Every structure is written in C-alpha cells, then in structure tokens.
Fold each of these.
Amino acid sequence: MDPDGEGDSAWPFHARAEEFEAVVAEIERADVERSGPGGVCIAGPAGVGKTRLLTEVHRVTGRHLPLIIGTRSAALTPYGALAPLAPGSSLHDHTDAASWFAAVAAELATRAEGRPVLMVDDAHLLDDLSATLVLHLAITASVTVVTTIRQGEACPDPIDALWRDGLTRRVDLQPFSRAETEALITSVLDGPVGGRALQLLTETCAGNALFVHEVLIAARDSGALRSVDGVWRWNGEVPHAPRLVDAVVNRMSGLDEQARRAIAIIALGEPLDVDLATAVAGADAVSAVARAGLIEVHPSERGPSCALRHPLYGEVMLDKLGFIERRRLAGELADALAATEPDQGAAQLLLTRRLEAGRTVPADELLRAALVANDSFDFTLGGELAAQAITAGAGPLADVARARAANASGDTDAALGILADAEERILTTDSLELHQRYVDTFFNTVHMAAGRSDEALAMLDRLAAAGTRFDAAHRVALEDLAAAYRARILVHHGQFDDVIALGSGVLAHADTPDLARLHALQTTGESLAYQGRTRSARILHDDLRRLAATGRREVRIGAVWAGMQEVLCLAQEGRMTDAAPIVEAAAETMRTSADDEARGLVNVVLRAVRLGQGRPVSARRSLLDALHAYRGFDPGGGRVWALAMLAQSEAMLGRAAEARRAVDACNRDRDTLGGVRSALDFALADAYVAMVEGRTTAAPRIMLDALDAFEGNVMFQIRSMHLATVLGADPAPLVEPMAAMAATTECEFPDHCVTHATALAEGDGSALETVAASFAELGLTLRAAEIAAQASRCFRAAGVHAGAARTATRSRAFAAACEGSTTIALADLEEVTALSPREREVAQLAARGHTNRAIAEALSVSVRTVESHLYNVFAKMGMTQRAELGAVLLGPQDRPDH
Amino acid sequence: MSETELVDDLPAMMAVALRLKWAGHDDSTIGTAVGIPIEGVASLVELAEAKLERLRSMPHQ
C-alpha cells in the first residue's frame, strides 16, 4: 500500500464509472448543441470524492483550461480564484462588468477548439464576483461549466442558480456502498484483507473515500493495520493521526461551538432519543448538526433516535473535548436520562454516564449493568462494572460476572481464581439464576478454555449434590444442569450413547432450565449426527429453533447452533451443495457479531464445507479469519481445529512447508484442546501432509490408524476408511466393515462410500464413473475428480480406451473447479491424447449448448467440419449422445444449467 | 443473486431512491427521503439504474 506515495494520482479512481460517464456525456451533449447553457454541478458531503471525480473529468476533457479551485483565502480577493482565466487586458480597462465578462469569454474561446469547459472545484468558496462571472459564462453559453459544491455549506447564490435554474445538471455524489468500500480497501492494500478487518474498516469509513484514505494511512503507520501471514489484519484502533483529525474536523467546518457540543453529546449517548438530544444539547444545535448531514434519525419503538452518520465524528470530537469537559457532558446526559423512564439500553447508558461523571451507583444496578454488558459481549465494560459491583457489596453473582469477563478476555487463570474463591458462597445461595450463570461460566472456563474436563466433572457433581439444600424443583433443575453440561463433556470425548441417554433424561422434564434444555438438544443432536442418524437429529434441530424463538437471553444462540447442526448433518451426508448456502448465510450474519466464539465456529464450519467442495483457496482465507478470531478467545479448541484444516488446505495446494508449519502448530496443543469434532480433521491433516511430503504410502495408513480413536463415531469411521481408499489403501478388506456400519445409519452417503470401495476393489470403471457422478451431484467435486481418475485407470487397465479418455476428461473438468487442488488420486492421471485441441474446443462449445452452426461461426469453419470433429469426439470417448458431453467435459460451474 | 439483493448492493441512498421510484413516488418525495434537492433526483435515479445494470452484468457466485 502506498496511498500517499505519489499524491492523489496514486489513489485508485474507484466505483465512479457511472458518475464519470454521466458528467462526460453532459459535457459532450453541451458541446454538440452549442446554443444553450450546459454542464454539471457535482454536489456531496466532504470526502465523498467530488474533487477526485472532477480531476478525472478534467484530465480527460479539460480542453486546455486550468482547473479552478475555490478557497477561503482566494475568496478575500474579487475574482481571486479565477485569476488564471483573466484576459490580457486588465479589469481596470473595462468600464462595466458586462464588458469585462465579454472579454473573459472571448479570451476563453481562444483557448479551446470546441466549447471551453470551465471546471471549478469547491465553487461554494468562490467570492460573489467570481460566482457571478461563472454564472454569466454559463448563461451566455460561452463555456460548459462543471462545478463541485459541498452539501450543507452556504453557497453563493449564482452558483446555486447554476443547478436550481436548470443551467447545469445536478449530480449528488453518494458515499460508497459497502461492497464498493470493501473493493477500494482491497485494491489499495497490496494483499488479501482479513474478513473481520475488512468489515471493521468498512464500517469505520462508512463509504467516505477520504476517510478510507486517511484511516488506512494512519492505521498502517501506527501498526494497528499490518500484514500477518500475508493477510492484512486490523486491531480495530483508529489512531487519531493529524491528517485524519483534520479530515474529520474539516467535515465540521462551519459549525459553531453549540453544534459541536451537540455532536459530543450524541456521541456519548447514541443512539439517543431525539427529544433527549434536543433537551440536553439545544434544538438549534441539533438542527444545525442535522442540516450539515452529520447525524441520521431512525424510528424506534420509543420514538425517533439520532446517531452520528460516521463513527469517526464522535471519536474525534470526544478526543478533542478533554477529560473535564467530557465528564461534565456525561453528567448532563445522565441527569437528563434519569428524568425519563429508561428501558434496558437507556438504563445501561445512564449508568455508564453516571460512572463517567463520577457519581455513586448502587451495587445492584452495577451488577445488572455488568451482566448486560457481558451478555452484549462487551467484556471490558462487563469486567469493570462487575469489579465495582463487588466493591459496592453485590453478592456472588458479581463474582461470576467478573470471572466470565476475565475468561472471555483471555485471562483464564484470573477467572479460575475468582470462581474457586466464590464457589462455596454460590452453592449455598438459593438462586437458580446464580447457579445457571455459575455452571455456564465454570464450564466455559475450566473445560472449554483450560481443557480440564475432570475438574469440570467434579464441579458438576458438587452442583448436583448442592441441590439437597433447596426445594425439589430447584434440586431437579440443578441435576438437569449437571447432566446437560456433563453431556457436553462426553460429546467432546465421543461418548455418544451416554450423551443421548443424559440428553433424553433432561428433555423429559418439561420444567428443566433453559440452559439445560439448550445443551441437551445440542449435544443429543450432534451425537445422533455423528452416528449417522441424521433424520432423528433433525427433529431436535426444530426443537432448538423453537427454543431460540422464545427470545430468552440464554437460548437465543440456539438459532445459530441449529443452523450449524443442520450443516453438520448435511456434511455427514456429503451434501456440500446444500450445506454451502446455509453456512455462507450464517457467516454473513455473524460478520457483524461481537460473539467471537460463534463467529469463529461459523468460520471453521464454512472452511469445512469449502474443503469438502474441494476449494482450498477459499477455505484458506476463511481459516485465516477463524484463526484471527480465536486469538482473543479460544474455547473448545477452535484454533487447533482451524490449524488442522489450514494444514489440509496448504497440502491440497502443494505447499509442503506451509502445511508442515500448520500441522506442527496444531499438534502442539491438539491433545489438550482437541475433541471429537476436530478428530477427523487432525487425521486428515497428518495424512495430507504425508501426501504433500511424498510419503504416499503413509497417507492412507494414517487414516486407518485413526479408526481406533473414532470408536462409536460411525460416520467418522466410514469416512476415514473411505478417505483411505481415495488416498490409495487396498479397498477390498474395507468393504465389509463399511457396509456393516452403513446399515446402522439413516442416510445414503455411507452407501455411496461402500459402492465406491466395492467398485474400486473390483476394478469396475463403469461403476466408478457412476459413483463419480453421484459425488459430483452432492457437491463433493474434488472427490468426484479423484474417483473419475480412478475410473480412468480401471478402464485403461481393462483396455477400454474410450472409457479411459472419457473419465480422464471428466476428472479434469471436475478438478478445474477445485482451485488448483493436487492429490494422490489426481497426481498420476495420464495425459489424455485422444482428443486433438480442435476436437476439444468444438466439444466444449457443444457441451455448453451451442449449435453446430453457432460453433462453426465462432471458430470460422464450416458446419460440416464441426460435424466431423464431433463424430470423432463421440467415437473416441465412447459416447452416443450430445447430452453426455456436458457431464464429461465441463466442471459443475460451467454447465449451462448451473 | 436476486434483484432485491442487487439493489441492496447499491449505495444506500441510491437503493432508497430506486425503490421509491419503482413504488411510484414522485421526485419531491424521493428528494425528501434521500436528503437532496428535487433537481438532483433524476440524476440520482439514472445513476442508480446504471450501477444496477452493471451489477446485473457482473458474475456472481
């Protein structure tokens, strides 16, 4: 990235093609018509790219006139900005303005062959006489006028008249869309940008090209934005570099002190009730800010609320206020809020502003605020509020809140200490809410973050035993909680039968706590999926969705889990085509989530689907995002899982050193942090790394050696044996055990695997060709390519040359959609020489649905020649129908019906 | 990608202007909604349609 290295000319002219064409078209129209006035007024807020557009238009159509720039200093002198246009005669040689204007027009006419184009940047800053001259030149059609004006700023009346009276066309430049902003950032940074970084940068800049420019420079210079492993990462900090501050302050030029104070107040409270904002900041000040386009108003249940149109406005204004003034404003806002009947969000705001203003807040309010902050994933605030609540004398729930915040912020040791100190007080307190929050926090800290499942199980025993101190309902609730969390540990270790038994017990209780029901549904559904009982699992997904639909805090995440469990089922069924849109939609939804755990999980699942589709490049990008998300918080071994999959991606791309580095990093922690979900990927990572390192006989053996670790996990065992056959294992001894396991499942995919192994064992090319088509239909494109390659070898061994050529071609077509994947099965696929280059060209056009005549025209040959080529293709490939061409020659993305 | 999704990919105010235009609202209403003078509405809608056309012609996965 070097946006400041060569001035603005180095900055890409981006996403303004339509605006550029509109302006140029208007200039050309005026040039052709000649008789009447013409031109364009480009309007928009500061930083939106008006000058960049005008500069580009001037570069292309400037017609030898200099670009005029309006400035405040030039405006102090009459005609100051227009001095470059002055004719040889002096202003003082003319007795009236009309004579002077005519002289200027005559002078300009000599400078261009066609009608001159006068371009004025920041025309709102012209002095009145210059503005009048520009208007005169436009009215008399002496020039075509193109101006830029800043929206919301006072403008000389003659300049406004240009567009208001129809002399020039007004084009209001809009901030970039999200996609345009992302594309600009990606084009400026010389390398891929992490998804989270891209999203945060895009939100921060809010479509303002100038802010993109300044934020990227400031963030890069401060180190907040840096390239990690070849991918740009941003820690979210916006360094208030002088250029960035100037850019923001410049946006607020023309506002008085009261209006600037209004911006600060809105920044402290946004989204802030409009009535409240006007009460605290004054109606005139808020109106002035609105007129300047600095805030936007949204309807809400409690009436309209306002928020700053750009996050940088508030950050810069608050920074410039200083501590004392900021504290005073926070106090004013808190007093105004206290006079209302605040809802939960407003109450949270009230409390934080009270604290900021140095006021005293009762312990129970601090505790509630800490819980709300944690539930909103603001763990920094949650930890601070919880600590203050403890100091103020809140009960043990404050300790739990503080421990949760500490663990989620990566300080697991501190969380463990807090929980150990507080447990006795917690288990003797008669509060089910306290016990639910405690067991959840303890589990996430001790089992998920620290990987100490024995300690977690011991705590669950203590929790269940504590139930004897309370009434029967409370006792049963604690037993259910203990059972549900015990199931989460057992599912981690692959003890699916035990999980299903525990889950069934919990779900049998109609009054079981929400958290217990949530985890019982999740763990039972997951266990059924790994057993291949996907039909039964889906019944539980529906229950999970219904539970999430209640909207209760503890169970809202159930909607995400239900989606991921559906993807898990689809993955066990090999249905990647169906899984992809679900997980892509979830990933899009989670892009803006502050829930690092859920976002990381979705990214990991997205990667799994990408790898299943045979798309290692796409998977690698998603994986790097997941690894970045897990840097702050890594419950449940998500990081080691992502590393295992990264190793696979690198190996599939033939990058042995990178694959080795990833698998080594994974292996350092996988024994302590890995679990059932990642077990197959650990084995696959080892096998793929062996493959890319040339240890081809070790690769299938690794998959078979892993079988013991998958005991009870029917689908992993079947998939592991199947992958072994793809990697080169002898399929014959694997057919029977795979078939026996497949019979216990509720899905078809295991049968496809058995059919594949059987065909391979029997050297049946035709059966393998059919299996390849089945895998392709499911979306397992790389696997389809590998099986088609196996079919080709079987055909060749049997002397069926047409079949060998056909399936080899088909394998290549599938592999072409797999982003450069190279695997053992594909590596030694023999070159297909059956088709000449011309025959292949004709056949591919026919496969895409073109008629013989269209092909003949496209290739400048006769129809008879096309027919001759196709005849040869059918003969060589052993085909009889044109419809078969698509299946053989085209990848899934290329088919006409795709 | 559906037409609705394509419109969502436009700059926010262009998307608003286009939807209002399609719904039959006049330039005055559109200008008020997107915060620009009525004289700029025709250009805004034209630009939105041009950008939408470009999005339609782009390959989407």
Amino acid sequence: MTESETGRSAADRTKARSTARPVVEVDGLEKTFGSGESAVRALEDIDLTIRQGEFVSLIGPSGCGKSTLLRLIGDLTSPSAGRVLVNGKPAARARLDRDYGMVFQAPVLMDWRTIDRNIELPLEIMGFRRAERSRRSAELLKLVELEGFEGKHPWQLSGGMQQRVAIARALAFDPKLLLMDEPFGALDEMTRERMNLELMKIWGQTGTTVVFVTHSIPEAVFLSTRVAVMSPRPGRIARVIEVDLPQPRTVETRELPRYFELVTRVRETLRRHEPEGRELEEIEASDAARIRAEGLA
Amino acid sequence: MAVAAGSLSPTARAASVGRRSISVWRKAAVAIVVLLAVVLIWEAAKWLGGDPWFIHGTVFGVRIDYEHRPPLQWRIADDLSLPHVWDVTRAFVDPAQRNGPPLGLVLSGQALFTFREALVGFVFGGILGLGLAVWFVHSQLAERALVPYVVASQTVPILAISPIVVNATKAGWLSVALVTAYLTFFPVTIGALRGLRAADPRAFELFRSYAASRRQILMRLRMPASLPYLFAALRIAAAAAVIGAIIGEIPAGIQDGLASAIVNYNQYYVTAPERLWATIVLCSAVGLVFVGLVKLAEAVVLRRRYGTLDVSPGQ
C-alpha cells in the first residue's frame, strides 16, 4: 500500500498520521438486513481505522454498502456483528456526545427557517446561548462564503448554496468528525468541482476528520488522503489506496500526472472487483431463471 | 458567486407585491362573476319553468304593467321550492315579526351566537385533535389501540350524540361547543398525524445525529413540518364546526342560534319559503367566514415558507 516513489513530505505525513489519535475504529463489522431466506448481507468483515485529520473516501458501485458503513459509524443504524468506536467510545455514546456532524446528499434544510437559523439549529438543540449562536453562524456564513444570505430562506438559494449551508450547519458545533454521504452527488459537474475546492479549504482551516461517501472517482482522489475501494455482494473493503498528492489541493492538483495515475489505480481496483467471468454468468443465469419462473407463474 | 443570484432584488419584490394585489382583485372579480352566474341560472330556471309573476305599479311617474307566464312548469322551479332571488333578498329587509327588527338583523344575531359556539368547539376540537395526534405519533400502542375508535366515533350520527352530550353536561351553549368539538377533532387528528410524520426521513436522522430529545424533535421538526397538513385539516374542521353547532343547538333547546331559525322557518315554509332560504344563505355565510379566517391564519403563519405569498379570502 505504501508508495516507494513518494516524496519525503508525504512520507512524513504518513508517519505523522500513523501516530495520530484514531477517530474511527471499525473492527470485524457486519451488517445484515432482514432475516431468514430474504436476508441480505450488506457488509462483511469490515476493518478500518481513521486517524485524526484524515480525509477518507468510501467508493464503490451501488449496493456495496458504503452508505451503510457511514451510517454505522454515525450510529444511524446498528451493526449485526463487530464494533465501531468513535473517539474511543462506542458509536452510540459518541452520537449522544455529539462527536460528529452529518451531511447528506440533499441539503435537508428546514424551509421554515432562515439560513442563519438553519445553521443555528444544532446549537439551539445543544443549548448554546443566543449570542454564541449568532457569533458561530456569522463565522460559518463567512467560512462557506454566504455572507449576506443569513435572512434568506432555503428556497431562495441555488442547490450548491444550499449544500454549503448544510456543511456550515454540520460544522456549527465544531465536531471533530464530519460524515458526508455523497454530499455533492446531486450537483452539476462544475458546481461539484467548485464545492470540492471549497471543501478542501474548509478542511484545511478546521482540521476536521472527514469520512466521505462518493461514487465519483476523480472526486475521491482529489479530496482524500486515503480512498477505501469497496466491492459489492457482500460489501467489503477491497483495498485502501493512499493518496499522496501534495497539500493543499488546488485547481492544479487535477493536472498532476500523479493525480491521473491515482484515478486510474482506483478505477482499475474497482473494475477488478466487479463481478465478472464465471461469477457474472452465474448472476445472469440466476436472473434469467427467475424471469422465466415469473413468466410461467 | 453573485450575491444577487438567490435573492430577490427590491424591484423584483415590488413587482411581486404588485402582482399579488392584482391577483387579489382578480379573485374578487371572479367571485362576483360566479355569484352573478348562479343568480342568473337560478332566475333563468324560474323564467322557463317557474310560477307566473307580474309587476303593476308606477315608477318615477311611469306606469308599468308586466306579466310573465313561463312556457314550462317545473316543480323544482316553482315559488315554493325556489323563491325568486329578489324575494329572498327582500326577506332580509322585511321585519321578522310584526313591528319587529328586520329578519336580516335577527338572523345576524343568531349567526353570531352560533359562530361563537362553533369557534369555541373548534378550539376544543383542535386542541383535542392535535393532542391525540401528538400522542399517537409517540406511542404506536396508543395509535393501534385508539385509532379504530377515533374513526368509529365519526360513524355515529351526530344527531344521536348531541342529546346525550347536552343532557350529560347541561351547560347551555357550552354543551353545543362540546358537540362541535366532537365533530371537529377527527379531521385535525388525521391531518396532524399525517403532518407530524411528513418531514424528510433524513431530517429525522439529522436530529438523531444531534442527539435531540423527543420534545425537541416535536417542536423543531414535526410541528413545523405538519403545519400545511394541519391547516388543511383545520379548514375542513371549520366547515364541520358550523354544522356541528347548528345540530347541537336543537337538543339543547337553544333559541338564540341559527338552529331555532331553521326549525322555525321550516314550520312556516309553505307560507314563507324565502325566510328559510335567507337562513340557509346566512348559515353558509357563517361557514365561509369561518373557513376564510382559517385560510387567513394559514397565509399569515406560512407566509414565508415556500415563496408563495398567497393571501386569498374565501374557501
């Protein structure tokens, strides 16, 4: 997994990271939906450690369980076997301690609240004082470059702007961990690239640890310090690829030869773990049998 | 990113306000045109198949002798079934009893009385309905156990329930308000229950990630998300409240409300059908005003929510 040709600074960073405190520890994790005949094994044998300050992407085809893994880390669903530790605590404890912020594919803003009040929502729930809330929301509006929009309502903003508000809201209470589930999946390509740059800027400024689910290979490589490539049926981590691109990531990062190499590497890893050959024939045969059976019924 | 991209510029806002006032005028105009059309069809039916009528008299020194004999004879259009619009209108102005105040004034007083009962019952029913919905949304057991009874409560004719309620409480117009509440809580429960569950599932996950309490989820997510559903239900409840109040007055023996007018003018229908018609007009006016008030409240409460600033009176 380590790259022999990486520069010195990258090696230093890898070393620094290996000594940093683990934020997420996933150990022998399994998740099965349903039971008996109709049980679907979503995740099997997942081990993953994410250290402080890392940006780890989970990438894979649909059905590989990447979102489920993220939701397990966030204690939005519970594992069938194995354990998840966040900041050294069980995930449920970490959730109650408000250790992480969450960003979904849709911004999920409250229509009835203005932008600043949307950002202040977690602070209200966590009992911050009004003065502190306004101070934080003003700060975050600046961070996501939406000053002047505090009095607007969500429907008055574009999709990209709404997603920036969602990111600001997730950062409002200063969580040490940010969980992002395809946050830019619904945006057009140009907005997405701009949002990637902004996310890198925010990550650089806040030093938050990020777990990021995506199915865009270029996005994963551009953003991450490591990319966990997942394979489906059952969902597993096929390989974790170190991304040794220089920090900070900028517009030029996308033009580095190393960037293209890594994109290719991730793509090939994904392809290698796609069902193919004999396995694919089996899947197709069973599909065909099922269709015939339904036709006869 | 330009700052103006997602915001309304002052000129755009002024234009939208202008457009809004135009649309209010247009709606008022449409309402008047529809009303005129109803009157026209009404009188056209009488023209074709009603009873014969005539005008003999002197207007500004001009002698008028006009007789109209409709070509057809329809029972539904005769003067007993369908009095002339002008007769109904005149009934409002004519005294209710010899040397008494005009019928319109008497009916207005009765309408106000009934409206008060309906309003109080509506508030009771609204609170009960919303309370039940909040309970059900937090307790599957309560929901499964009680929803069938909530539904069954509405299959019992209100006419059978109201004497029981009136007899049990003996509280005059307040008993009537209770009957009204019985009729109004149902749509509120059903609407609010739907609304309290209407928020985006991911919004619930978001609140879960904040470790929000049930109370916080209720007040900051479920309630605001339920408001559009709640107001739709309240509009139905408002219309039902007026009916409930009128029905409740009969066994309560209340003489000050619209029910006594209806019962009274039913008895004298053969001699003065236009009085019952005038009462009907007032009953529906009470309902329209009530529903209109709910709609107004909705427009005020939800004015900033979806970018539609629709403040239209009536229905």
